[in-house]
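If your schedule permits, I should be very grateful for your opinion on a structural question. I have a record of one protein: its chain in single-letter code and its fold written as discrete structure tokens. Would you kindly read the sequence against the tokens and tell me how you understand this chain to fold? Thank you for your consideration; the sequence and its tokens are set out here.


***
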Amino acid sequence: MKKLLLSLITLSLLSCSKDGFEIQNEETQTKKNQLMYGFVNTPTVSDSNKVWQVGTNPWTIYGFYSSHTKKHMYSNSPLPSELPRTQPGQYYNFLERTLGAADDKVTGKGNMITAWFNINNEDLVLTTNPNEFNGQPGWKKDRDLGKSFLGSEEGSFPIYRYYRNSTSSHFYTRDKNELGDGNSGFVYEGVAFYLKESGPWEFRIQDGTFYKDINTGYYYIVMESQLRILESLEMIRRVFDFRPDTRYGLPGHPIIELDIQTIKGTRGPAISANAYLTQDVNTGMRYFNNPQNGRGNLKIIPNDVVFSRYNFHKDNVQKVTGTNNSRLQELKITY
């Protein structure tokens, strides 16, 4: 599943040099453009702020069937290539159905649904009780699929489990009318777990994520749970660090290329073309300066964790003396 998600996202890795860091429009992005794309001067920190993207539910369980092996298989990936197997070559599994979506692995209230694969007969079982395989040869855990919903939860529905001895294979369905209490050689084994409809899923986006809009070439950052436009290329080079790590052969900090309108949530004030970083030589405290409408909009960078999360440029911090920070707010990591 991780491979599938990564394949849907193109990362643009940028260096600090002018030749290696290009933008379609290098002019300052004006207030008119900001308003056109929904950027307004809203408060920088709010409990209600959130930035997210709508995608496929990561806990969706897909069902496959192969007329070649006469077996049903299941996975949280829609790619048949990720199904377990014991032999090379073609298994001819095709995506037959979507069972539904499990609950979150961390926050879900039910038991974990796990997939188990038998290396002797290539049967695959989904269960919330892995103890059923105790003492039975050949069973290997394939993966966790998310947690079962509680049967009492609104919107949940049962998944029915069947077994066919002639093909050594299990079958799961959300529609009991499909096989009833057993049919076509399948023996009914009961309710396996509970799922819900697999609708669109909101992925909340972390602070410090950078984007490039494929339509305009403009750049953005998620800062304190707000999507904020970066006003100029020169400022991006000055404040943020996209150089590759030549010591370890690692690429620079990623920038995700997409249609920025697919990113939902709070739009915050622009990161000004005049933004810069400072450090008080007396206290060692670092600051993020984002001048707006004649005001300094100075924020304390409280520690290295915050400095690193926002990918600030450590070599472009200006040294200053005597910054008064008695009333200044700290720049925060909100998610």
About this structure: The CA atoms of residues 110 and 150 lie 6 Å apart.
